[in-house]
Design a protein that fits this description.
Length: about 260
């Protein structure tokens, strides 16, 4: 049951990463958006007694606003500098979370007095997935694929790479904020270490493993990446980490574009 729950939460993180990767941007900024959404939702519920549904909306808005600020700065960078800057942002986010205990609880973290059911998580993931499905088959979906293949060629046929990638960042921020809130309500305790390198690795691995060229890929990748440790622990507990690594390597070698 917990594996299914965390698979759905990780699917939100993977979709947030896919949103920018589909437009040709490799970025780890989802971690920062998730932190904003998670801590904001936890404060709204814990300190102000806001309902869980309104806190999700506020988390999405907070993540989207953060994404607008980040995109306006980061989209000036080249691709490799973008990746490095987004990694730096992950470190900066943790430092800021540690040094603003009034908002984040600091080293002591925050207790989240509300939990979310699997059904509510499933409905949230279904709604987000439906949006990605519609976007994939829209003019925006065509623009992101054109920009990802070749931004220079896309610009010659009237597609603005900056505007397309800016929209991708906004979508990533909203979904990342939702994922951060979902994780907070699932764990019922969050700290600066909750939104750190582990999430960055999970979201990238899930997206690449499932397939970064289709909206369904990140969901499949998150499910497999979350379930793989539980399966290897049950089947080969003595070499659990080795088995997990071997499976991931085999998938990446023989299916370089992902499972989907």
């Amino acid at each position: 049951g917990s594996t299914i729950t965390f698979a759905m939460v990780n699917s939100l993180f993977a979709l947030s990463t896919y949103a920018v990767l589909s437009a040709g941007v490799l970025s780890f900024t989802t971690v920062a958006f998730a932190a904003v959404g998670g801590f904001l939702a936890a404060q709204m519920v814990g300190q102000f007694g806001v309902s869980i549904y309104l806190s999700f909306l506020l988390a999405a808005l907070g993540g989207g606003l953060s994404a607008a600020i980040v995109a306006s700065l980061f989209l000036r960078l080249e691709s490799h500098w973008m990746a490095l800057a987004s990694l730096a942002l992950v470190l900066i986010t943790r430092v800021m979370a540690l040094n603003f205990p009034t908002l984040t609880g600091g080293v002591n973290g925050l207790i989240v007095p509300v939990t979310i059911s699997q059904l509510e998580l499933l409905i949230l993931l279904a709604l987000v997935t439906l949006i990605f499905y519609r976007l994939h088959n829209s003019w925006y979906g065509l623009m992101t694929r054109a920009v990802r293949e070749d931004a220079a060629v896309a610009s010659t046929i009237g597609i603005s790479p900056f505007r397309t990638q800016f929209i991708a960042f906004l979508i990533s921020g909203v979904v990342g904020g939702l994922g951060g809130a979902a994780l907070a309500f699932t764990l019922q305790f969050i700290s600066p270490d909750t939104y750190f390198i582990a999430i960055a690795f999970t979201m990238i691995a899930s997206t690449v493993l499932g397939g970064s060229f289709h909206w369904f890929g990140p969901i499949v990748g998150a499910l497999i990446f979350t379930a793989l440790p539980a399966v290897t622990q049950a089947v080969v507990p003595a070499i659990e980490d080795v088995a997990k690594g071997v499976v991931l390597v085999l998938i990446m070698v023989f299916l370089p574009r992902g499972l989907i």
